[in-house]
C-alpha cells in the first residue's frame, strides 16, 4: 500500500520513479499473486465516517490529496454498512495496471537485499509487514539494533453458496447504511449459549501453529487471533467480534442470540465472504473442524483458511527524522507499516507523505510541515518522536494522537467532540494542500 501510493504521488508531481517489487519472483507466506497493493489480512479499510471517526478522516484527507489507494478503493467498494470494503482482487489489479501504465513509473521485479547508497538518489523503503529476510538484516545492521516484530493473523474466507441461509441472515449491525444493500451487507450466524460455550472450548483446545525457537508472540491488539482473545476470558468474544447487539435474526425474530458470527463480502460478485475478526493461528485441520461448528457454516467450503505471519517494523521514534528519513542515511526514507503504523489506510497515508516529500526534495522544494491537527500529521508526529521509543508498538490512527480540542461552552459529548476534531483537521489539511503547487507530471 505505502510503496504504491508513494510511487504514484512522486510520479504525479513530475518525478520519474523506479518501483521495485520482489513478487512474484520471490513470494511470501501471505501473498497469493504478484499484484501490487495485494490485500492480505482483510478487504476492509474500516470506517468511512469522516466526521466522527479518525480512520474516516484519514480517508477524506487521502481523497483530497488525490490518493491512488483510496480512489481505487472507492471504485471497487462493496456494501459494508458504513465501512469501506473492496473487491480485493479487482482492487489490486487496477492498482497494478495504473502504476505500470504511468509514463513516469518503471516497475522492476526484483528483490532489494541491501540498503542503496547515496548515489541511488532519494529512496523510499515501503516493504510492508513482510520485509524480506535479507533486507531486514541490512536494516538491522545499519540501525545497530534488531528490528522489532509482532505477529499478524489472517482471517478465513468462505464460499457464499456453502452457507446455510436457513440459519444465517443478511443484516448490518443496527441496520446501518443508506441503501438496502448497505443495510444487508453482512451475513450473520447466531449462537445459543450452549453453542457458544462449546465453540469456546473447541477454540481453546484446537491445535495451534508453533513458533520457531526464540520467537515471541507480540500481537498487535487490533488484530488478535480469535483463540488468543478467547484465552483472555470466555466472554471476550461475545463482547468483541461476536457481539450480538444491533442484530435481529430474521428467521427467529423473537429469539436473542448469545453471540453472532459476522461475515463480510470479499468480492464484487458476492461469491466470497470473510469471517470478520476471525484471524487465527490454528492449524488448518483444526480451523475446518472448529469453524464448521458455527451455525450456518456446518458445510462451509473455504476459499482460504487463516494463517499467521511475522510483521516487522522499526523503532521509528529513534531512527527517523520529521521527514521520515533515516537519520544515519538521510537519502533513505521509510514509509508504511514498517514505520510502526498499523492498517492499510495508515500505511498508504504514510506512503502518500513520503512520496510527496521525496518528490519535493528532487525538485529542490521544501514542503511545509504537515499540520499535527490532521490525521496524517498526527500519525507522522507519533512515529517520528511523539511515541515513547521504549514502549513503541504499531498504532492505528485514533483521536488520542491529536492535540486536545477546547470544549467551549461546557462539556461536549463524544460525537460533538469528534466533529470538532475533524472540522479542525479538514481546515488544516486544505490549507496545507494549497500552500504549495506540485509540478505537473511529465514524461520528459
Detailed description of the structure:
The protein has 13 helices and 16 strands. Helix 1 (2-12) runs parallel beside helix 11 (344-362), helix 2 (54-64) runs parallel beside helix 11 (344-362) and helix 2 (54-64) runs parallel beside helix 13. It has helices at residues 2-12, 54-64, 68-75, 88-101, 133-143, 180-183, 193-205, 226-231, 284-291, 316-319, 344-362, 375-386, 414-434; strands at 17-20, 44-47, 77-78, 83-86, 105-108, 123-125, 148-154, 157-159, 169-170, 186-191, 259-265, 272-275, 302-304, 307-313, 325-326, 329-334. The protein has 2 domains: 2-145 and 314-434, 3-Layer(bba) Sandwich (FAD/NAD(P)-binding domain), CATH 3.50.50; 154-310, Elongation Factor Tu (Ef-tu), domain 3 (Beta Barrel), CATH 2.40.30.260. The longest helix has 21 residues, at 414-434. The strands form 5 sheets. A 6-stranded antiparallel sheet has the order 9-10-11-12-8-13. Strands 2-4-3 form a 3-stranded antiparallel sheet. The chain has a 3-stranded mixed sheet with strand order 6-16-15, covered by helices on one side. With 444 residues, it is an alpha+beta fold.
Task: Write down the overall mean pLDDT.
Answer: 90
The number of domains is 2
Structural class: alpha+beta
What general form does the structure show? globular
Give the CATH H-level superfamily of the largest domain: FAD/NAD(P)-binding domain
Strand numbers in spatial order across the main sheet: 9-10-11-12-8-13
Which band does the percent of strand residues land in? 15-25%
CATH architecture of the largest domain: 3-Layer(bba) Sandwich
| Unreliable residue runs | none
Instruction: State the name of the first-level CATH class of the largest domain.
Output: Alpha Beta
- As a whole number of angstroms, the C-alpha radius of gyration is 22 Å
Largest sheet: 6 strands, antiparallel
CATH topology of the largest domain: FAD/NAD(P)-binding domain
- Kindly state the number of beta strands: 16
| Residues in helices, as a percent range | 25-40%
- How many separate helices? 13
InterPro entries: FAD/NAD-bd_sf (IPR036188), MnmG-rel (IPR002218), MnmG-rel_CS (IPR020595), MnmG_N (IPR040131), TrmFO (IPR004417)
Enzyme class: transferase
EC number: 2.1.1.74
GO cellular component, one term: cytosol
